[in-house]
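User: I'm preparing a small set of examples for a lab meeting where we compare how different chains pack in three dimensions. I only have the primary sequence for this one, and I'd like the structure in token form so I can line it up with the others. Please keep the answer compact; I'll paste it straight into my notes.
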Amino acid sequence: MTTASLIEALLFSRAEPWSFDELAKALGKEESEVRDGVTQLEENMRERGLCVLRTDTNVTLGTHPEAHALLQQLYKEDLQKGLSKASIETLSIIMYGTEVTRGKIDYIRGVNSGFILRSLLVRGLIERKPYPRDRKSFMYVPSVDLLAQFGVATVEALPEYERIHGEIDKASIGAELTEEKDGTVSESPDA
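Assistant: Understood. Below is the structure token output for the 191-residue chain.
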């Protein structure tokens, strides 16, 4: 079997994302070989109902973006059910922003977002990763499940990504200046 086929089997066997590191260990291969295998798998699945969904660190199988219209009604109710306006605002900042920390979210929204972030983490809509500029802090990224619910394989495929991404990054400049001045990122470990 090819590396791409083995990756497909592993992704199918688990109904949750695999990290590239986990796949490399499971296959006994280098991470670069796994990334090449995932790229090959993406090409192999281009005309199928399923596709590869990935972030920088995780990969899973999901429905093809072209099937999104068919599945949208099923997901729409689940996604909006119980999500407040504040949750949707926070998700938008995370999906369209760059290196989104709690400090940036709080700065853009003008309020404390800790409770909302915990709620979105529990729902599996976002993931928390170490923030590269301050190892004591975290940044938030959309989960693979959230991308699947929106019917996109990457955040760059979101509607009007470039325009909104630029606006979010401009809006967060004040937060970055505050972080640089203080030398820390405003972050509590429980959010």
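A couple of notes for your slides: The first strand starts at residue 18 and ends at 19. The chain has ten helices and six strands.

User: Perfect, thanks.
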